[in-house]
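JOB MANIFEST
job_type = single_chain_structure
chain_count = 1
residues = 315
[input]
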Amino acid sequence: MKIVFMGTPEFARAILECLISSDYDIPAVVTGQDKPVGRQRVPAPTAVRRLAEQHGLPVLMPKSLKDDGLYQSLAALKPDLFVVAAFRILPPRLFELPRLGSINIHASLLPKYRGAAPINWAIINGETETGLTSFFLKQNVDTGDMILQTQVTIAQTDTFDSLHNRLAELAGPFTLETLSMIVKGKSHPIAQDDAAATPAPKIHPEDALIDFNQPSVRVADFIRGMATRPGAFTFFRGQNVKVHFAQPSDHISGPAAAPGNILPNKKALLVQCRDSVVALTRVVPAGRKEMDGISFLNGFRPQTGESFVNQGKAE
């Protein structure tokens, strides 16, 4: 069976790696264009492109998915199926091209968390489970009929990074299981319940600003869901401070403490939230390496009444 794979980041790379090790024919890989990275803004290939080229697979990097040249190139391959993961929205002309259609591998239990950032939002919203869903593409994003699902528990210690890596590790074998069902004619797609759908919109760096005027559980979940990409952040003495992990604390503060106040304590970096306290355990002050909360206290020595605030110098 001829499969054209489409994807860009590490999550997609893990799936492509599994496909390469299988018996499927991969006549082409479609991925995003090189993007500038680092302070020198040097263009770097996507994770998918690097892997594809290591294995000698033809790579297409279209500027537009509506380009006639792209369509003609893919049509000439006479593909049986497109497998899509963490990629752009395909126009109907493209996803209807393969003989068997196009499938997507999505990192949530659809119809929950439709959109570009399902892993982040599942943690931010305090979910205790998520998973993977394979489905056939149709015009509206992440709404196609489902083929297969698998569940994954979200631990209280999970961050975006740890959950992403765990799901990526499962995604390759999960994709092969989906393909096996399709090849054997055992896939029986199930329509999604649109009434149960929840959104997972794309997250921009500025969306990761911490609001300490929330319950401590919500603050901790927000920080875990943003860590380390793009990285939840706040400001201290006008400088950016990223926070990579936090957890609610049973510390009881005085009545005068306001959201954002750093509470006097030598054993933990405690911050007042709306109704209770959160402990910041992994922080990255501007220009510094990641440190624990106690190291922050010893290095910066916050004074009584000092706070983390929502304005300052962007990193």
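[summary]
The chain has two domains: 2-196, 205-300.
Residues 92 and 139 are 6 Å apart (CA to CA).
exit_status = 0
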